[in-house]
Specification:
Helices cover about 25% and strands about 15% of the residues. By secondary structure, the chain is of the alpha/beta class.
C-alpha cells in the first residue's frame, strides 16, 4: 500500500484508502453528489481531471510518477 495511491470519488473510497494505508486522492470529476461535503473527507489531494494525476505524482516523487503508459 505504501507504493500505491487510491483515486476515488466517494467518501467510502477515501475511507478505504486510509484503512489500507494509501494516500487518497479525490477525483472531483467523478460522480460526487452535489450535496456531499467532500471537503471533510480524508484526502491528501484533489484533482479536477485525470490529466492532473501524473503531475501530482511527479511533484511528490511517488511511484508511478515516472511510469510510461502501458501498451
Amino acid at each position: 500500500p505504501e507504493r500505491c495511491v487510491y483515486v476515488g470519488d466517494a467518501e467510502r473510497d477515501m475511507i478505504a484508502a486510509r484503512a489500507a494505508g494509501m494516500p487518497a486522492v479525490l477525483a472531483a470529476f467523478g460522480y460526487i453528489d452535489p450535496t456531499a461535503r467532500w471537503q471533510d473527507w480524508p484526502h491528501v489531494a484533489r484533482i479536477d481531471r485525470l490529466g492532473d494525476l501524473l503531475p501530482w505524482l511527479r511533484s511528490r516523487g511517488l511511484p508511478g510518477g515516472a511510469a510510461k503508459a502501458a501498451r
